[in-house]
């Protein structure tokens, strides 16, 4: 079952947002939706994975990331 999670991520440009989408995109069908907002510094992810698993993937971008909560 999928859940939607929100993360705060240090993003300064669309390139940063693209990095988040790329690492999450490698998870295939375990991630069903990714929305990024550079302005709000947020990444919203709908996935069957846990928030900890998603956080670990987002940290691979090298950006500062923290879990905000489930939506």
TrEMBL record:
Organism, as annotated: Crassostrea ariakensis
Entry keyword annotation includes Ribosomal protein: no
Pfam families: HMA
GO CC annotation: cytosol
Keywords: Chaperone, Copper, Copper transport, Ion transport, Metal-binding, Transport
Family: Belongs to the ATX1 family.
Function field: Binds and deliver cytosolic copper to the copper ATPase proteins. May be important in cellular antioxidant defense.
Keyword Transport set for record: yes
Domain HMA, chain residue ranges per copy: 2-66
Domain of life per record: Eukaryota
PROSITE patterns per record: HMA_2
Subunit organization: Homodimer. Interacts with ATP7B. Interacts with ATP7A. Interacts (via dimer form) with SLC31A1 (via C-terminal domain); this interaction improves ATOX1 stability and controls intracellular Cu(I) levels.
MF-aspect GO terms: copper chaperone activity; metal ion binding
Protein name: Copper transport protein ATOX1
GO biological process, one term: copper ion transport
């Amino acid at each position: 079952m999928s859940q939607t999670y929100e993360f705060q991520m240090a993003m300064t440009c669309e390139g940063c947002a693209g990095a988040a989408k790329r690492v999450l995109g490698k998870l295939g069908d375990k991630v069903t939706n990714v929305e990024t907002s550079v302005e709000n510094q947020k990444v919203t992810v709908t996935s069957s994975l846990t928030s900890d698993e998603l956080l670990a993937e987002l940290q691979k971008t090298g950006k500062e990331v923290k879990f905000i909560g489930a939506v």
